[in-house]
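Friendly challenge for the regulars: who can give me the structure tokens for this chain first? No prize, just bragging rights.
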Amino acid sequence: MGALIVTYKTHPESADENERLVADVFAELNATCPAGIRYAAFRLDDCVSFVHVAMLDDDLPNPLAASAAFAAFQRDLAGRCAVAPLPVGARLVGSYGIAED
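First reply, four minutes later:
Bragging rights claimed.
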């Protein structure tokens, strides 16, 4: 299971809209319960920075690729961002209560 961490900063006036769009993605994931993904998103205390952590099963297609809510989130992401998203691959070293099987 590979991990992807994405960080970015929104414009202050776009941060609440971005949070709403992220919440829509999680509402869809909770409604459809797709296999092969563990996903978390955080809004940092500066109120404009976001961190997304996705752990994807290597043997299954990425369910976000078929997500209408994720497509809506991505649609004007560049326009909402003051600092563009920076995706970085990662390898899980350990976790407690977050990435349990």
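The two ends are 11 Å apart (CA to CA). The mean pLDDT is 95. Your move, everyone else.
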